[in-house]
Write a structure and sequence with these properties.
Helix 5 packs parallel to helix 13, helix 6 runs antiparallel to helix 11 and helix 8 runs antiparallel to helix 9. The protein has 338 residues and is mainly alpha-helical. The longest helix has 43 residues. It has one domain. It has 13 helices and no strands. It starts with 8 loop residues before the first helix and ends with a helix. It is a multi-pass membrane protein.
């Protein structure tokens, strides 16, 4: 058995190298953008007050924040493994976690399309085409939307303060998740869009074929377990944000902090910016200010939580990425020899 349409190895290494350099530049540019923005605001409010907030945190508290982020990654990784096995992929838990976590290295590509590198690794190791594994991306993203929308809705109900725009965000997330988990509806939507636009017939045909595979995920127990895993994962990061604010001395309730974190993450993603960079930070700072958290506290809290969630995930992904590349290449060679 062999994998077709594989470019010459020398050419592939060259293109992969150029792609990695571009990704590194993108990562560096986005990170610099966030840092410059935070520094600008810190200068406007006074360095001493902002730096004092950083000094309040101990090493153990920082490790606790990172640990809660790891809980998020592991539980969502277990969900990815559940979906992969349900789809019929005969891969070990270690392999699926390697693919899932390694894909974090591409989290800040536009629209997070870089995370589709997971599909490439699966294709190399199993011979499955992108079209067959595409439902994994759809169901994983839909599950995140469901979990975050449910957490946000619960947090709004349990917290004293409301968030302007939260209800539309919840509804948009739930509608998108509902469509992505309904094979017939997604297929019908793809057909309707093609008839309306009259272009990209091959793309919409692939969406229709991929939607048929979503049937494997529609069993109630699969969706229930996936929902629980997603809820635990995202709640862990929301609790981390609350703990961080408490350690800094902010007077804010648990569910208000969770609502702000989840809303800012969703809102940042909906801007289309890579990793929600810029939008998520702006929403987080603005909402904290509305909750009465002073700017000299909101700034470092936002920077720290983004470093210990988004950028920590990217860092782990960059460490796992080379391993995933090597293992997938070995898998491709093994398939070629069969």
């Amino acid at each position: 058995m062999s994998i077709t349409n594989t470019p010459p190895r020398g050419t592939q290494r060259s293109s992969d190298g150029a792609g990695r350099s571009r990704d590194v530049l993108l990562l560096g540019g986005l990170f610099g953008f966030v840092i410059i923005g935070i520094i600008g605001l810190a200068v406007a409010t006074g360095w001493e007050e902002t730096l004092q907030q950083f000094r309040k945190l101990t090493l153990w508290q920082v490790l606790a924040l990172l640990g809660l982020s790891v809980v998020n990654y592991l539980f969502r990784g277990l969900r990815w493994h559940l979906f992969a096995r349900r789809l019929g992929l005969d891969l070990t838990l270690a392999a699926n976690l390697r693919h899932f976590i390694g894909g974090f290295a591409m989290s800040v590509t536009p629209g997070r399309v870089g995370e589709l590198v997971r599909m490439r690794w699966i294709a190399r190791e199993t011979g499955w085409s992108f079209e067959r594994t595409a439902p994994l991306v759809l169901i994983d993203r839909a599950s995140d939307l469901i979990a975050m929308a449910l957490i946000l809705a619960l947090a709004i109900v349990l917290s004293a303060a409301g968030i302007a725009g939260a209800v539309p965000v919840v509804l948009i997330a739930l509608i998108a998740a509902f469509v992505a988990t309904r094979p017939a509806l997604l297929s019908g939507l793809a057909t309707g869009m093609y008839r309306l636009i009259g272009r990209w017939g091959r793309l919409f045909a692939k969406v229709r074929r991929a939607s048929a595979s979503l049937q494997a995920f529609t069993h109630p127990w699969v969706l229930s377990i996936a929902a629980v895993l997603g809820l635990i994962g995202w709640l862990a990061e929301g609790v981390a944000f609350y703990a961080l604010l408490t350690w800094m001395g902010a007077e804010i309730g648990l569910w208000a902090a969770v609502a702000i974190f989840v809303f800012a993450t969703l809102a940042g993603g909906m801007t289309g910016a890579p990793g929600g960079v810029g939008g998520a930070e702006g929403a987080m700072i603005g909402l904290l200010l509305l909750e009465g958290v002073p700017l000299e506290m909101s700034l470092p809290a936002t920077l720290i939580i983004r470093l210990t969630t988004l950028w920590f995930a990217i860092g782990i992904g960059l460490l796992v990425f080379p391993l995933a590349e090597r293992q997938s290449t070995r898998g491709a060679h093994a398939l070629e020899r069969r």
